[in-house]
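Example S7 (structure tokens).
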């Protein structure tokens, strides 16, 4: 997929085959403080116990067993990651007062949207979210849910923005379902089961979409 920033974006599910790309993208700190995208999946005490290498191994085990999210590539270089699983798999979301259930409708959650530093503010987040929507449609996922934030100051620390910015979700077509706090929202995208996609077949060829 090409865009106005001259990026050539493609998207692939994270599997054991491209695990090394995920490791390279997240770097030695596991994206942020040894997280390795396990923060929302574990109780806080368990997360802190596994912080660093333990979380990395836990994430690797999950990848071996199930779908966990999509990777974004620019000319075969990993530049972004979007976590995606059924909401009930994210313990911290299920137990959160601010992110309590909007209704009883089953939803798949997007708790993490991580973009390589050099690729931020280039529209990668929006294109990655559109790819997630396409994946959901193809796999009969009816409702997507996410927890973006709005900056509460001119520059929000990266560690507070890993759920993604509200503006990116709105550009991708998500709608506000609830507001958990002044800066945190719950947004939803209601998928329609059809064969249309927002990016062409050439871009998706060989990406491993099912």
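Recovered sequence:
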């Amino acid at each position: 997929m090409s865009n106005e920033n001259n990026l050539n974006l493609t998207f692939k599910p994270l599997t054991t085959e491209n695990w090394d790309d995920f490791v390279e993208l997240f770097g030695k700190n596991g994206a942020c403080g040894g997280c390795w995208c396990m923060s929302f999946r574990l109780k806080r005490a368990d997360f802190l116990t596994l912080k660093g290498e333990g979380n990395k191994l836990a994430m690797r085990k999950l990848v071996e067993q199930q779908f966990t999210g999509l990777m974004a590539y620019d000319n075969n270089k990993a530049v972004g990651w979007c976590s995606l699983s059924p909401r009930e798999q994210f313990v911290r979301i299920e137990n959160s007062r601010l992110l309590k259930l909007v209704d009883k409708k089953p939803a798949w959650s997007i708790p993490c949207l991580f973009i390589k530093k050099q690729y931020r503010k280039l529209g990668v987040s929006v294109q990655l979210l559109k790819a997630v929507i396409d994946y959901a449609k193809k796999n009969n996922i009816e409702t997507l849910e996410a927890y973006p934030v709005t900056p509460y100051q001119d520059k929000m620390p990266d560690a507070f923005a890993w759920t993604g910015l509200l503006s990116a979700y709105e550009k991708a077509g998500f709608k506000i379902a609830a507001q958990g706090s002044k800066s945190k929202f719950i947004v939803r995208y209601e998928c329609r089961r059809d064969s249309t996609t927002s990016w062409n077949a050439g871009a998706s060829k060989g990406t491993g979409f099912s």
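Notes on this example. The first strand starts at residue 9 and ends at 13.
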